[in-house]
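Deliverable D2.4 — example input (structure tokens):
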């Protein structure tokens, strides 16, 4: 339901204002020009300013200087004009109240971190801030900002960005929860609420990135290697048009070379896998496309995000060495078939520090004995400082585009 106000001006033509629950549509028509603009009420200050000299009533934008909406004072008549002004203010306040309630709600989800795939980042997000972690030991808190508007065919749109607020460890997180708000007067309330939510949360958070961007096999255009993923269809446009798959680098995930490879001074396995994927996809015009995945849809997509059906024996071996070395991270994936999860758990047994780091975010465990043995060994080796992994534990390889 909407209400309408029509104002006519001898030189400027006719303006029709149509007020809806959360927006106002302005139809302006003059002798030589006709325009339609939609303005979101959430972006307007509720209190209008009256310019008595010019007999103009202006509503200001929250994000821009100058008026975003202007009316001729008391046109077409005093009563209908006053009624429309009251309705605008009322709708703005109601809209802002709904937004405030929505912003207070915290949603928790996980998202694959790519490219390259390096695990699942756990995200707790409100309308004002978010917190992210790869392992639960270190959390990065970010503020959410509304950017300057940009013009579209129907009006102005506002996008959002995140800026770093703080990085804290698990102990710091608990201190915020136990001492807030008395001892953290300078800390934004939205961050305190996120910290309290995280402290009580169950992990891992559900995986929501059902939109996937895959590099395709040119023979049958089947999915070859996953490049990106996102949770909402509208987010797809924020990703670059990329048709190259990236392997997790050897600096983050070293893969042991064979004696022959060492003698020949072979390039890292990671790099060779990346090259053979590019070769299979086609160097000239590789193709990639978006898919919307469903929870029970497994047969057409490689469960470990990289196709394993390599005809060349050497390439098949390189692929397996890469995937099994990545096992501790791949175990964070949701929906892996049990047989695949079982072989990943067996492979991850050799990388106990990584298992210890990512284990809280494994959605399922098949062989608890293997996992428990790895966790115990990690604690013993960490206490004796044997092969301390701290130098690379804080890396976050991959890009979070949203």
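Example output (designed residues):
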């Amino acid at each position: 339901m909407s209400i309408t106000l029509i104002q006519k001006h001898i030189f400027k033509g006719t303006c029709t204002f149509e007020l809806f629950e959360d927006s106002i549509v302005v139809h302006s028509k003059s002798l030589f020009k006709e325009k339609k603009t939609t303005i979101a009420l959430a972006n307007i200050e509720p209190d209008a300013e009256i310019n008595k000299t010019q007999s103009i009533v202006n509503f200001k934008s929250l994000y821009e200087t100058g008026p975003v909406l202007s009316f001729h004072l008391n046109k077409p008549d005093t009563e209908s004009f006053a009624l429309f002004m009251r309705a605008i203010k009322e709708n703005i306040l109601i809209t802002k109240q709904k937004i405030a309630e929505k912003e207070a709600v915290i949603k928790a989800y996980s998202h694959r971190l790519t490219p390259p795939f390096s695990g699942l980042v756990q995200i707790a997000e409100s309308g004002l801030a978010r917190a992210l972690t790869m392992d639960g030991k270190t959390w990065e808190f970010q503020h959410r900002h509304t950017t300057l508007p940009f013009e579209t065919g129907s009006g102005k749109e506002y996008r959002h960005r995140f800026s770093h607020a703080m990085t804290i460890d698990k102990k710091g997180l608990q201190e915020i929860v136990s001492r807030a708000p008395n001892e953290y007067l300078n800390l934004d309330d939205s961050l305190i609420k996120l910290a309290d939510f995280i402290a009580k949360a169950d992990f891992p958070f559900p995986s929501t990135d059902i939109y996937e961007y895959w590099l395709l096999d040119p023979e049958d255009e089947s999915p070859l290697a996953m490049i990106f993923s996102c949770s909402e269809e509208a987010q797809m446009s924020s990703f670059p048009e990329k048709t190259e798959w990236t392997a997790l680098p050897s600096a983050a995930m070293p893969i042991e070379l064979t004696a022959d490879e060492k003698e020949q001074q072979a390039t890292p396995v990671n790099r060779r896998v990346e090259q053979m994927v590019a070769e299979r996809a086609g160097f000239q015009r590789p193709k990639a496309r978006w898919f919307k995945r469903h929870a029970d849809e497994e047969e057409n997509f490689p469960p470990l995000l990289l196709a394993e059906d390599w005809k060349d024996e050497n390439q098949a071996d390189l692929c397996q060495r890469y995937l099994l070395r990545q096992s501790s991270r791949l175990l964070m994936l949701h929906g892996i078939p049990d047989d695949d999860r079982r072989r990943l758990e067996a492979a991850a047994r050799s990388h106990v520090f990584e298992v210890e780091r990512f284990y809280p975010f494994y959605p399922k465990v098949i062989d608890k004995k293997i996992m428990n043995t790895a966790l115990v060994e990690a604690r013993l080796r960490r206490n004796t400082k044997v092969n301390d992994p701290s130098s690379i534990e804080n890396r976050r390889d991959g890009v979070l585009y949203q």
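The first strand starts at residue 3 and ends at 9.
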